[in-house]
Every structure is written in C-alpha cells, then in structure tokens.
Design a protein that fits this description.
With 418 residues, the protein is of the alpha/beta class. The protein has eleven helices and 18 strands. It starts with a helix and ends with a helix.
C-alpha cells in the first residue's frame, strides 16, 4: 500500500505521467527483480533472459527500432557450493559472509591469524606468516584498515610466496557483493565476513565453488523512437545487469540497482511512441555495468548513432529511493543543460534540490562524458533504500517508486523546451 500511495502522490505532482505509464513502470520493476531473472547475472544466464524480456517490452511499448548489440566479457561467478563455518557455526551467504568477485573457490579447514591493528608492523606480520605454525592460515583484518595499507594486503592476496591461504575482511551490516573486478581470478580467496562472527574464533571451514566464464556473451538493448527530425537525438541509458548469484540459492534482486532505472527506459519509450517528439529518442539498456561499465564502454567504441548527434544523455541509475534531494553528476559539455534543468526544477518543484556531485566513473554516463557528450547522471543516494544496494535485500519490499514520476517530469519538460 505504501508504494501505491507514494506513486499516486507523485502523480498528482507530475500530471504528465499517465496511470497506464506508471502501472507499466511498476510492473517492469517488479518483474526484473523477480526470481525469474536470478539477479540478472551471468552464471544462470539471467542477464540473457533479461535482455530478451526488455527487447520485447520495448517493442510492446511502440519503439520503431529495437536492436541487440552483442559483446563479450570475462567474468568470475559463484553458481555452486557456498558454505562457510566459523568454529563449527554455519554462516549464511549474503547476510553473514560474501565473496570478493575475483576470488577462486576454496575448500578445507584453516586456522585464523588476526592482524594487530593497534601496533601494526608489516615486517613482523610477514615474518610471522613465514613460520611453519602459521602456514596456510586465513588472515583476518578490518576491511577499512586493509584499505589504508593496500600495498601490504595486496601482497597477502596475490603473492603465493607468502604462505597464507587467503584473507577474511571484516565488515559491518549489510554486507556488499560486487562484480567490478571479476574479469580475472586472484591467487587467493578474499571473503567479507560480519565483524562479530569471527571475533575470538580459532578456525574457519569453507566449501566454496567459483566458475570463471571467459568471453561470456551479453548484449546492450537499444530502442529508438522516431521524432520529427533525425539529425539529432536525446539518449536515455540505464544498466539492466546486476550481481546474479552467490551460491546455488542466493541471488541479488537489484530492484533499486537498477531495475528502477531500466523500467524507466521502457516507460519513457512508450510515452514518446504515443507523443512523438521533435527529435529522435534513443534508449540504451546496457549490460556489464556492474562489471566495470563494460556495456557503455563498448557502446561508445561501437556507437549505433554518431555521438556528436546526441543533444543530451540522461543516465538513470538507482532511482528507486525516496531522497527528496536528487543527486546528479554532469559532464562539462552538459553544464548549460544542467542549468536549464535547475530552472525547470525551481519552477515546478520536482525535487527539493538538484545536488551536483563530482563527475566520476561510477555509472554509464562516464564513458560518454569522456567522449565529450553532454550528459547527466540521476542517482538516488542517502535515501531509505540506499544502504541495501549491492546486497540481497535490495528487493521489492524496500523500493520506492515516487522518484520516477519526478524524473519523468523533469526530463520531458527539458526535451519539450518548457
């Protein structure tokens, strides 16, 4: 009921969004986050099923052209056994522990070696690990401490001459899972574990399987709605891939990240199919974003339209949250457009503020920005759902649908020149 009330209130604010458009948006968000697509990852081909689903949805929405742009990535996955115990206590994958995306599989029972962070001495640690009694241990340390001493811990992760079996990095809830550096497999496993679950423990036991997928074929899904003129276009981009599986039973719904943005592409395409714009509208649902922006990078290297034809590009990422302040990142050529959007927002009151952050390589606008395309990222941060992104709890129960009508109003006002 909360979702229904929230989106109805937003519809009162943004009259241009029809009830049918909003219903379709909600349906696609819910579907993309369902078990059918298993987190839109690679191990169980959820991402391929999602691409076919989206192509069909764009056609149903009335897009004039729908193209599939295939490309391949190397990616590490965890589709098999996912067992971990600490001093005999079985831990739950996703909630109690999570794998770093580049980790190999691991099986066996190991002693634990805890890093003394109060009197840290890297020489002493490496000397300790050379002793016979410490051979094949799992080194345990707080993640943020390892971040500060990256050179030492990188050695513990990759140097096979150091006899530790792997690393356990402690973290507080909720645990995260990533794909960004999954294009290769490291020498040793790295496991994130809830801090209190290993405190004072003596040993750990694993039975974890990984599966490396070389040259895995995935694709961008590109839909075009014809405008009155074809010399220029507006582009919407959102990534539809997510994190997939962590073992046989655990999958990551990715409802906010980024079923929320992907569904908006289909709904926007449907709007312009019924209300023909002056210029072409191109919607690019990209894959491989979670694997280090691979789909958008491939697109700018193999564009289906000349990049200099893009009047403005809108990147919709994680818009399924409730922060009344809309976070944005803008490329240098996009400054004038951003100023125009600020004026529209001040007049219409879509958001309390459009807060501009530093341009970064954190979503699919980045490869376009590097090519000089005027673009903006819309991403919700610090809302009630934000702590759960990249966790198994980014699901339908937490998503907020009220941001989409506001973004819809802002971008359609911008495109129409209001």
């Amino acid at each position: 009921m909360k979702k229904v009330i929230f989106i109805l209130l937003s519809l009162c604010l943004v009259g241009e969004v029809s009830a049918q458009n909003a219903d379709n948006y909600e349906r696609i968000v819910r579907e993309l986050g369902s078990a059918r697509f298993q987190g839109r990852g690679y191990a169980k081909d959820g991402v391929k099923k999602a691409s076919r689903f989206l192509a069909n949805e764009f056609r149903k929405a009335g897009a004039d052209d729908v193209d599939i742009q295939p490309f391949s990535i190397d990616i590490n996955t965890f589709p098999g056994k996912m067992k971990m115990s600490v001093d005999g206590r079985r831990l739950k994958p996703g909630d109690d522990f999570s794998m770093r995306e580049f980790s190999p599989g691991v099986r066996g029972k190991y002693k634990l070696y805890f890093i003394d962070t109060l009197s840290y001495d890297s020489d002493r640690i490496f000397s300790d690990l050379s002793r016979k009694e410490n051979e094949n241990v799992f080194v345990v340390c707080d993640f943020w401490f390892t971040y500060k001493h990256g050179k030492d811990f990188k050695r513990l992760q990759s140097d096979t001459s150091v006899a530790n079996a792997g690393l356990i990095l402690t973290w507080d809830a909720p645990l995260k899972f990533y794909k960004a550096y999954g294009e290769k497999v490291s020498a040793k496993p790295v496991v994130w574990v809830m801090s209190d679950l290993v405190k004072g423990a003596s040993n750990v036991e694993f039975d974890i399987e990984n599966k490396f997928l070389p040259a895995y074929q995935t694709s961008n899904v590109i839909a075009k709605v014809d405008g009155e003129r074809h010399d220029s276009c507006y582009v919407f981009v959102a990534h539809y891939d997510h994190l997939g599986n962590l073992g046989r039973r655990i999958w990551f719904p990715g409802v906010n990240d980024n079923a929320s943005g992907t569904a908006a592409l289909v709904a926007i395409a449907g709007h312009y199919a019924k209300n023909r714009p002056q210029f072409d509208i191109v919607c690019i649902a990209v894959s491989g974003e979670e694997a280090n922006l691979r789909g958008s990078t491939y697109y700018v290297e193999h564009p289906t339209i000349s990049l200099d034809r893009i009047k403005y590009l809108f990147d919709l990422d994680m818009i399924g949250d409730d922060n009344p302040v809309q976070y944005c990142e803008v490329s240098e050529p996009g400054n004038a457009g951003f100023a125009k959007m600020q004026g529209i927002n001040a007049e219409k009151g879509y958001f309390r503020e459009l807060r501009r952050g530093e341009l970064a390589a954190n979503s699919d606008h980045w490869p376009f920005a590097l090519k000089g395309v005027p673009c903006i990222l819309f991403e919700n941060e610090s809302g009630s759902n934000f702590p759960y992104y990249h966790t198994m709890h980014d699901d339908w129960s937490r998503v907020e649908l009220g941001t989409y009508p506001k973004i819809f109003g802002l971008v359609t006002d911008y495109i129409s020149g209001k």
